[in-house]
Design goal:
This protein has 211 residues and is of the alpha/beta class. It has seven helices and six strands. Strand 4, helix 5 and strand 5 form a beta-alpha-beta unit.
Amino acid sequence: MNIAVLKNTGEDTGRKVKLNKDIFGIAPNDHAIYLDVKQYLANQRQGTHKAKERADIVGSTRKIKKQKGSGTARAGSIKSPLFRGGGRAFGPRPRDYSFKLNKKVKILARKSALSYKAKEKCIAVLEDFKLEAPKTKAYLTILSDLSWADKKTLLVLAENNSNIYMSSRNLKKASVTTADRINTYDVVNADILVFFESSIKKVEELLTSKK
């Protein structure tokens, strides 16, 4: 599959990039995508939720009424979950939500997500460019020239570029990452997947070398 290389003004450079069919043209595995996205979202959770149970409540431990003869259920502590102000029964406790996922599954998931984007023709390749200073307006102008201002875009760079990253971070629908940090969730979540001309080969190298 060949894709035309565009300038950041939207003009065609006349060059084309050929996408590796072993990465951008495989039969997608939906379950691998599901597992990789699930792991990514699970890793974002802090897991610091905590509710006070009866052992954590400050209060008297005396027996609040006699065991028998009151005509109501027996009660041994004011900190019981049955009383207002008592501890919560089976409340949430701090926990780690992360789980292990095999590297081969993660690679298959990324290839599957990239293949979906290629099949849907949602991949674009831009000629490498630089911004002299971090300016959101400059980056927004580029998106507008390419008719992507109202779409969720993920720009994949060959290496870290702080000016481009800082220019995009205030835009709700624009994301920037590097070839070695690309993940399945970001690919699936983007409407348009944009590669720098230099980053295509790097992504292909990273996904073919890890077997």
